Amino acid sequence: MDLLIRNGTVIDPSTRVERRADILIIDGKVAVIEEGIAPGSGVDVIDATGMLVAPGLVDMHVHLRDPGQTHKEDITSGTLAAVRGGFTAVACMPNTAPPIDHPTVVEYVKSRARAASCRVFPIAAITKGQVGKELSPIAALAGAGAVALSDDGVSVADAGLLRRAMSYASMFDLPIIEHCEDLAISAGGVMHEGSWSTVLGLRGIPAVSEEAIVARDLLLAEETGARLHVAHVSTAGSVRLIREAKRRGVRVTAEVTPHHLALTDEAVQGFDANVKMNPPLRSATDVEAMCEALIDGTIDAIATDHAPHAPEEKSVEFDAAPFGIVGLETALGVAWTVLVHSGLLSPVEALRKMSAVPATILNIPGGGLRPGESADLVVIDPERRWTVDPASFASKSRNTPFQGRTLTGKAVITLVGGVIKHDELTDDGVRGSGLGVRETMQVGDTVVE
Ligand SMILES: [Zn+2]
Ligand SMILES: [Zn+2]
Prior knowledge:
single chain, 449 residues, alpha/beta, eight-stranded mixed beta sheet, five-stranded parallel beta sheet, 13 helices, 29% helix, 22% strand, binds zinc ion
């Protein structure tokens, strides 16, 4: 079905162009972007007055739990959660069961992804079984379609092995994505080590457990010339190290999660396991440093680290609960509320960090709006106020720290390949051809959350 999205503010983060325009979609591809396109017959019309129309969001760090832990999430539910959140592409981490450390598992993910709601790009393990002893078959994994390498969940503890992995990864231009944590320093910790961990009597995870590995990995990337991507940066010290490395030309990129920007370790005082994640929520000083790093480009991308866990796994005492929270369905709202409405980032910059930049890091399509490209788009209502209700999530899991929070900004339509995968503007099913019925509707007033 051909589609015309009219009267929106069209944002192309790849070129930083923002303008009033219509977008005509024919055969699943962007055909024309210009003002005042007349709808031809048989073209469905969406009135995007007051809305932003942008390339679909790209999440470079999600855990889809498939294969092996599909009671938490699977590729179907995880990608449904993704399109609800405005994402049209996700890259999934390899800590599945079995892990994505063999081309057959890459193939499995790709085959399941064919029926998924959005595009899925597998990240393969750096080491076999992610146990840090032996390198995965990197050439074969690259050949099968892995877009990056990571042992996320842990760092590669053996620096010699990581150095070899970096050398191999460079041959295929694959980034190495590191979860930076020195387990010898963090072992047994459940929250950020600081005044709150002392007050609450919980074992801390010191900032230096992250920074020590960031420093080591930056040196290895500098020496090997490999592309290093630091996952979920959480401390001011990591920011300082990455900023300094970028200045001297190290090929490093970095991401931060929405929750590490929106919350501090103070949130742990309720002992809610839904604020337990790794890296942990840090201090207000760390949050401030990461916001500055987003503004000056030290931190390149925003990624969710969507980490579903079943309710029975999280409904235990804080110490015993697993690390991780879901993020796909709240990321845009949290980012818009914390970064855009606060004036820290412009809409274009926020969208760059959630689409064009991660797509570039992973060398996958996305983040731009050009005629001829697949119509992977999101329509955002930047002023929509909504309250997070985990019961309404498409994800199989509910582990969010944002339950009950009112956010401003929401993905209201998501298109993948020109097909509507998520639609909150036209939930009443009204769908006309030509000058459609929707043109007379007051966009934003018609939807009940
Ligand atoms: Zn991690
Ligand atoms: Zn992760």
